[in-house]
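thought: fold this chain, then report.
action: predict
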Amino acid sequence: MKPLSLAALVAFSALSPLSVSIAAAEQTVDAVQARQDAFQSIEKLSKSANSTLRKNNVDWSSLQQTSQQLSAHGETLLASFDKGSEGGKAKADVWKKPEKFERLMLEMNEGYQELLQASLEQNSSAAKSGLDKANGTCKACHRSYRSRW
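observation:
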């Protein structure tokens, strides 16, 4: 029985690195999918917020809800670009030279926080300013950090 146990132990120890690398790969896929989902939601929600703000009678309740969702997705993204989560449409510079990328992500989140605060205060011009700030960082980030394929 001992030779079998020893053989099982050897087999397990040989497979352990494989199972660790499979788990790491699954985690990376999960991180990539989470940020792609967040970016897609942000795109839709930003359009919705913009549309709401263009109306004569702004639906502040709807804008508050949209703003909260945008802020939540922004927070998700801040935590979704850890080392080891490379992949998706993001260029390698996100991880190699993260300073500008992280600054843009923080600015995006600041814009969403300003939008949320303005929606709570029912201040159209401040809400538009916050949304414009966030949307401006999207464009700058895509030019620098998003791969076309």
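thought: worth noting. Helices lie at 2-54, 60-78, 93-96, 98-121, 124-145.
final: tokens above.
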